């Protein structure tokens, strides 16, 4: 399903909020998106089209994967990065090509009052160097008419490729993809083997992914907009402040500069923006870790489902549903979850009768099935998330696992009352 096909599907299913009045890319469009519970299509952001909250709920994710909402984790845990990728000669993305680069003409948004500048937030940065390829989303701050500051997190693949190129005093060729098939954008956020993002996307969508080659040699999928350029081996500028998933400002750092040499786009392109700390940001950060936790817990007990909760920023808190076989299964599940997602801070293990998507039900399990002195694991001084405002300066934190499952020997004590039919 192409980017435009998916938008048409949202429109046909009456889940698309359409804003036809002119709005500004500075604060106004992000403010409208923040107040909406679903995808928002802007027909006139300074004369151009844009969409936000495209994958802003599990309903949209389920639609994209063609599964019910509670089947997302099962689908993701089964998919392997072995889909077909085809190289083609041309693309509708090349309908308009310009080397007179002016990023200010695009609807790049300024989201919050202390932002370091306008940001590209849904840009899939595709890089190639020395026979290696990577596709991943990086936040990109406008640093000039043809310059972007790229937050490259060590030791992720774009950081590694840029480091290798810089050691040879060479620029790293990149292409920034905006408005691709949503399955491709999602695949770029996953933790798959190096260079397998497009194969994973093809497996997710059940159809080949077509790539075409940019002038700098980087191969990219069909999309609404492509920004072609190079990451400078030496130049760095201040990047930030930027609001990250916790809704708090991240640090200002010296980050590498991308020089954009060419812009390609479809006629009347649709820009894709992700609201920082908004629902799409949270889901795109968190959901790719859920199958990792699911598969890790399945090695120690029978796992039924996993969710990284919105209240936990879809990153720091998890609820894991298991079919408990023996005492100790829940504690093994806790340790497996922390090992699978090292940024995880708190995890709750529940039984099959608890709806993990209903936080009231999860709280019920904690209230009625947890005994603090025996059902809580507290693990101090371990590596946590750099995004946790409460983490120590050296990156360590304290993790807590809660066994909110029934005691098997006392199972009758936990039977929930049912109304007669």
From TrEMBL:
<dbReference type="GO" id="GO:0016831">
    <property type="term" value="F:carboxy-lyase activity"/>
</dbReference>
<keyword id="KW-0288">FMN</keyword>
<keyword id="KW-0414">Isoprene biosynthesis</keyword>
<dbReference type="GO" id="GO:0005737">
    <property type="term" value="C:cytoplasm"/>
</dbReference>
<dbReference type="InterPro" id="IPR048304">
    <property type="entry name" value="UbiD_Rift_dom"/>
</dbReference>
<comment type="pathway">
    <text>Isoprenoid biosynthesis; isopentenyl diphosphate biosynthesis via mevalonate pathway.</text>
</comment>
<dbReference type="InterPro" id="IPR049381">
    <property type="entry name" value="UbiD-like_C"/>
</dbReference>
<keyword id="KW-0464">Manganese</keyword>
<comment type="function">
    <text>Catalyzes the conversion of trans-anhydromevalonate 5-phosphate (tAHMP) into isopentenyl phosphate. Involved in the archaeal mevalonate (MVA) pathway, which provides fundamental precursors for isoprenoid biosynthesis, such as isopentenyl diphosphate (IPP) and dimethylallyl diphosphate (DMAPP).</text>
</comment>
<protein>
    <recommendedName>
        <fullName>Anhydromevalonate phosphate decarboxylase</fullName>
        <ecNumber>4.1.1.126</ecNumber>
    </recommendedName>
</protein>
<dbReference type="GO" id="GO:0008299">
    <property type="term" value="P:isoprenoid biosynthetic process"/>
</dbReference>
<dbReference type="Pfam" id="PF20695">
    <property type="entry name" value="UbiD_N"/>
</dbReference>
<dbReference type="Pfam" id="PF20696">
    <property type="entry name" value="UbiD_C"/>
</dbReference>
<keyword id="KW-0210">Decarboxylase</keyword>
<keyword id="KW-0456">Lyase</keyword>
<feature type="domain" description="3-octaprenyl-4-hydroxybenzoate carboxy-lyase-like C-terminal">
    <location>
        <begin position="283"/>
        <end position="404"/>
    </location>
</feature>
<comment type="similarity">
    <text>Belongs to the UbiD family.</text>
</comment>
<dbReference type="Pfam" id="PF01977">
    <property type="entry name" value="UbiD"/>
</dbReference>
<feature type="domain" description="3-octaprenyl-4-hydroxybenzoate carboxy-lyase-like N-terminal">
    <location>
        <begin position="7"/>
        <end position="78"/>
    </location>
</feature>
<feature type="domain" description="3-octaprenyl-4-hydroxybenzoate carboxy-lyase-like Rift-related">
    <location>
        <begin position="88"/>
        <end position="279"/>
    </location>
</feature>
<keyword id="KW-0285">Flavoprotein</keyword>
<dbReference type="InterPro" id="IPR002830">
    <property type="entry name" value="UbiD"/>
</dbReference>
<dbReference type="InterPro" id="IPR049383">
    <property type="entry name" value="UbiD-like_N"/>
</dbReference>
């Amino acid at each position: 399903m192409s980017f435009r096909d998916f938008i048409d599907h949202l429109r046909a299913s009456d889940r698309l909020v359409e804003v036809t009045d002119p709005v500004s890319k500075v604060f106004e469009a992000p403010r409208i998106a923040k107040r909406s519970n679903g995808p928002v299509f802007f027909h006139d952001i300074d004369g151009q089209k844009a969409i936000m909250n495209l994958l802003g709920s599990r309903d949209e994710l389920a639609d994209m994967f063609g599964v019910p909402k509670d089947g997302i984790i099962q689908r993701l845990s089964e998919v392997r990065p072995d889909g077909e990728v085809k190289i083609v000669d041309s693309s509708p993305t090349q309908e308009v090509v310009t080397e007179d680069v002016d990023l200010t003409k695009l609807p790049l948004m300024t989201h919050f009052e202390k932002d370091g500048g306008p940001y590209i937030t849904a840009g899939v940065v595709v890089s190639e160097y020395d026979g290696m390829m990577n596709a991943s989303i990086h936040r990109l701050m406008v640093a000039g008419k043809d310059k972007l500051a790229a937050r490259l997190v060590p030791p992720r693949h774009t950081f590694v490729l840029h480091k290798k190129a810089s050691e040879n005093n060479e620029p790293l060729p990149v292409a920034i993809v905006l408005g691709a098939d949503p399955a491709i954008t999602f695949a770029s956020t996953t933790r798959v083997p190096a260079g397998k993002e497009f194969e994973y996307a093809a497996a997710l969508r059940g159809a080949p992914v077509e790539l075409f080659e940019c002038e700098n040699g980087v191969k990219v999928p069909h999309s609404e907009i492509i920004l072609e350029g190079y990451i400078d081996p030496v130049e760095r500028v201040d990047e930030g402040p930027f609001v990250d998933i916790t809704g708090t400002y991240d640090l200002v750092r010296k980050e590498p500069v991308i020089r954009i040499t060419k812009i390609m786009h479809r006629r009347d392109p649709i820009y894709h923006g992700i609201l920082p700390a908004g629902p799409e940001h949270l889901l795109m950060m968190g959901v790719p870790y859920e199958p990792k936790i699911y598969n890790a817990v399945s090695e120690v007990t029978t796992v039924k489902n996993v969710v990284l909760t919105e209240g936990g920023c879809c990153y720091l808190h998890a609820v894991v549903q298991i079919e408990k076989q023996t005492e100790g299964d829940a504690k093994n599940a806790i340790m497996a979850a922390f090992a699978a997602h090292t940024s995880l801070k708190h995890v709750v293990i529940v039984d099959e009768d608890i709806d993990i998507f209903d936080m009231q039900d999860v709280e019920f399990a904690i209230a009625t099935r947890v005994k603090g002195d025996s059902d809580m694991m507290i693990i101090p001084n371990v590596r946590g998330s750099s995004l946790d405002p409460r983490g120590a300066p050296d990156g360590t934190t304290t993790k807590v696992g809660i066994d909110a499952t029934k005691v098997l020997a006392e199972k009758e004590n936990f039977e929930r009352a049912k109304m007669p039919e």
